[in-house]
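Example S7 (structure tokens).
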């Protein structure tokens, strides 16, 4: 299965781990993160996972707000170059387990969409350089220019980090092209990449000496590679399954919690349906009614908040969207058979 080709047919999305890395980096810099979590509409423990995707427009909003709050126009670039971003797990591990540098780059291209599918990638050679070309998708190019630019620089920096891991040395690019014009902060790019860069080129390309293509990857592990590829293929396949109406409604209810849950009118409008049509489609699917889905989301959030914190009952009521504590206590008793004070609650899973 060609993962990047399968992903090209679906909307732009990012691994939740990208959002996790950006928020954690902001927190390390002393930036209040509540607003960033609010943009996503997801609790923190949903983010450090590869099986959750963030829509391109939502990721763009998060990225742009992180730039504004930090005053850092290259926040993603600095996040990666400062080693503050944890590795993006599967794709990076697949590359590190490959037999040769060329094979690692091929695998990186094939499984890049597990990280994000905002750019299509291809491998080629040009004047002694083995390069990866990055072509932003049209819908991603419609997002704010600072985000699109920093996303590319972040991708380049991540690729450089991985290349240094698989070659075991301080390798620098032999080719670095940007389709965009020379930015005002070009000196910061030089600090990270330490090589000659060219702007206003016909494509975005990062390349390394073609002579290293047949070099053996020090961490090569064929058995681990097979396991990782099976996992990656299964993960990609799970993203491609047609999403049920109920799953989409749950996703939107969770995303739009502010913390009061959205109304059926609001969710139906996002889905470009009438409230009545949405209810009919849920019923035809054999799914719970909208009000029950909202209740399920509140219960799940309640369990996660209690698992991860020492919030008071009043705070739990607020975060799960209840107007008053008494209503929350009644809901808690219906969910778990106890009031919040009577027994510790654990994540319901």
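Recovered sequence:
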């Amino acid at each position: 299965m060609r993962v990047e080709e399968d992903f090209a047919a679906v909307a732009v999305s990012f691994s939740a781990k990208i959002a996790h890395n950006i928020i954690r980096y902001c927190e390390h810099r002393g930036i209040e993160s509540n607003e960033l979590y609010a943009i996503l509409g997801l609790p923190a423990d949903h983010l450090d996972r590869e099986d959750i995707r963030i829509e391109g427009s939502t990721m763009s909003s998060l990225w742009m707000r992180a730039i504004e709050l930090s005053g850092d126009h290259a926040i993603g670039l600095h996040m990666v170059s400062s080693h503050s971003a944890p590795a993006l797990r599967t794709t990076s591990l697949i590359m590190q387990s490959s037999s040769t540098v060329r094979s690692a780059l091929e695998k990186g291209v094939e499984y890049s969409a597990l990280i994000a599918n905002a750019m299509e990638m291809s491998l080629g050679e040009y004047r002694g350089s083995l390069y990866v070309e990055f072509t932003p998708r049209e819908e991603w190019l419609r997002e704010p220019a600072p985000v699109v630019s920093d996303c590319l620089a972040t991708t380049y920096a991540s690729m450089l980090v991985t290349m240094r891991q698989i070659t075991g040395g301080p390798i620098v690019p032999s080719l670095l092209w940007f389709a965009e014009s020379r930015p005002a902060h070009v000196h910061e790019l030089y600090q990270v990449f330490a090589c000659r860069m060219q702007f206003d080129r016909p494509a975005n390309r990062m390349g390394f000496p073609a002579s290293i293509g047949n070099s053996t990857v020090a961490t090569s592990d064929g058995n681990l590679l097979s396991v990782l590829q099976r996992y990656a293929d299964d993960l990609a396949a799970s993203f491609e399954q047609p999403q049920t109406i109920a799953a989409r409604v749950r996703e939107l209810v969770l995303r739009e919690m502010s913390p009061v849950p959205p109304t059926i009118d609001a969710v139906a409008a996002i889905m470009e349906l009438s409230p009545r049509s949405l209810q009919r489609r849920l019923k035809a699917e054999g799914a719970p009614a909208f009000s029950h889905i909202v209740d399920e989301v509140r219960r799940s959030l309640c369990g996660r908040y209690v698992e991860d914190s020492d919030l008071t009952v009043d705070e739990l009521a607020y975060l799960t969207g209840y107007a008053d504590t008494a209503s929350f206590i009644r809901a808690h008793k219906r969910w778990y058979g106890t009031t919040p004070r009577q027994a510790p609650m654990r994540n319901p899973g």
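Notes on this example. Strands lie at 13-15, 53-55, 119-126, 129-136, 175-177, 204-209.
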